[in-house]
Amino acid sequence: MILLARELTIVKPTFITTFIVILFMLVGGTTSVSGADQIFCVTTKIFVGDQRDPASEHQILFDQGLVYDVPVINRRFITVFDPAQKRVTLLDRDTQVQASVSTDDLIKITAQARASVKDDEQKKKLGMEAKVQTSEQRAGYSIKFANLEYHATTQKPEDPKVASDYAMFVDLASRLNLVRRLGPPPFGRMTLHQEFASRGELPLELTLTITGSKQTEQYRATHAIGDLADSEREVIQEVRGYLALYRQVDLKTFPK
Question: Is the dihedral of CA 104, 105, 106, 110 positive or negative?
Answer without folding.
Answer: positive
